[in-house]
Amino acid sequence: MYYIGYDIGSSSVKAALVEAETGKKIIVLNEPQNEMEILSIHPDWAEQDPEIWWQHICTATKRAIKEANIDASKIQGIGISYQMHGLVIVDKDGNALRNSIIWCDSRAVEIGNKAFAEIGEEKCMSHLLNSPGNFTASKLKWVKENEPEVYNKISKYMLPGDYIALKLTGEVTTTKNGLSEGMLWDYKENKVADWLLEYYGIDKSLTPKIVENFTNQGVVTEKASAESGLPAGIPIVYRAGDQPNNALSLNVLNPGEVAATGGTSGVFYAVSEMSSGKSTRVNNFVHVNYELETPRVGKLLNINGAGIQYRWLRNNMGNESYEVMNEKASNVEVGSEGVVVIPFGNGAERMFNNKTIGTHFLNLNLNIHNSAHLFRASLEGIAFSFVYGMECLKDDNATINVIRAGNDNLFRSEIFSRF
């Protein structure tokens, strides 16, 4: 018997087959083979067609079953991890009404800032543990203001993982931690923050039904089975955003434990006991083991311009492999002979109160510096942003006893991980 897990990222969709009894990995693969396109028709906008995620899910599933040479009927459950904070809106038939406004889109910054100012810091920080910010609720308000003809057709709003669950099961559901990603969970009242929806003029009936992270969340329909190759009738048994999911995979479940990731963005995710939010630079989200009696909250410090900075250099400096880039960087002394890279070039940075800082290359000397210096300086700049982010977490009263990092992307670079 097997389980299949999906990770709906902004770069690719991953599928992993594991043995149900032992957890042994059978196969892991990505779709597409290259990276998915992020549409940016205006500066600081970022969108993806959610139907593309579903198509890649179907292709990846069929590939995994074929390449692992397993009997698909022995797959008995599904887990879903997904890019956080995105907005997907669907009509009454479950069809997406527009592209998803994804996590690194900055168009709703001012909407969230205005809400924070008018509702008040005390209310927001004590009930949401955050400012409304540039999150899902504010993005939905942007659609209401700027695309009323689309907004009027909405049956439900949801997160990216909720959309994939809908495609699999035909049921529209979300989770507490999904709602908390959108600034729509009231920790104090332990329910949906309908008062924020009311402030934004959004009908609370647009909120999906809530299911628990670890439960039967619906079963695969005949239609989804025909499209994906999965057995009809098997359940989704788990769903969470990528950072809570990564923390779970690293066994980061208790206060004082921190998960670190270095992908397109960089993230520290520190598990804490629930308390009022203090800093608008740090986000607080419902963790996967959140219970009313033991309310575990993940303090998330996000750095948008992390791995994408290194990828940009690769794509624009000869398309060398990361291994070659790391090797060249290792031959340059610490400090990169004066070259400095400030890596915040992927939209508004929450850790700088939603300011768009941009990427900056400083002190280039055209007589002595080459690509190796830029590679080294980029890794050093990203490492600096991680250190600065850790200071932001400490300012928000996060207790840090242990940091666990997966073997992913930036952490594969000895230079970066050593910093």
Descriptive tags:
419 residues; alpha+beta; five-stranded mixed sheet; globular
Radius of gyration: 21 Å
How would you characterize the largest beta sheet?
5 strands, mixed
Q: Which parts are unreliable, with pLDDT below 50 for 5 consecutive residues or more?
A: none
Global morphology: globular
Count of discrete alpha- or pi-helical segments spanning 4 or more residues: 14
Question: Care to describe what's here?
Answer:
- With 419 residues, the chain is α+β, with helices and mostly antiparallel strands.
- Helix content is 33%, strand content 22%.
- It has helices at 50-68, 109-119, 121-127, 136-146, 148-151, 160-169, 176-181, 194-200, 222-228, 242-249, 307-316, 322-330, 371-395, 414-418, and strands spanning 2-8, 13-19, 25-31, 47-48, 75-82, 88-90, 100-101, 156-158, 173-174, 185-186, 191-192, 209-210, 236-241, 257-262, 266-273, 283-286, 296-303, 340-344, 358-362, 402-405.
- The strands form seven sheets. It has a five-stranded mixed beta sheet with strand order 3-2-1-5-13. Strands 16-17-15-14-20 form a five-stranded mixed beta sheet.
- The longest helix is centred in the C-terminal third of the chain and has 25 residues, at 371-395.
- It is globular.
- It starts with a strand and ends with a helix.
- The model has no long low-confidence stretch (mean pLDDT 93).
